[in-house]
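Q: What structure does this chain adopt?
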Amino acid sequence: MKKLHNYVLILSVLILAICCTAKTADKNSNDITGKTWKLIEINGQPIQLKNPKNNPYFKLNMTDMRYEGNAGCNGLGGTFEIKQDIMRIKFNQGISTMMACDDLEIEQRFTKALLAADNYSVSGKILSLNKAKMAPLAKFVLQE
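A:
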């Protein structure tokens, strides 16, 4: 009887450990902060840059709740609010340099997508910024 009790106890501990590990993995997969996200798509269309070296990107810094990035050739930054447990995000109007660029239309659409987004989803290394339950405003790939 004592052996059965020990087996049940060991099995219970293993199940608890597996459940806790799965929950932690889910939370980490939704953590989009501290990572660089490179733009790959706007409004369902892959981006086509005249100068591929100037790919728009952004990064979220939780220390001071600021985002920073580059819209193509102009730097941008501002503050943001995030609720990772429900995958909600809000980018506040920030600052940007104002240089003339070849890909100005993409810059404007990128900035507009950031400011319009109110939630996000993550699938593997792809981040989607969304507005309500509509199609994604923009998609990003994790920059390694």
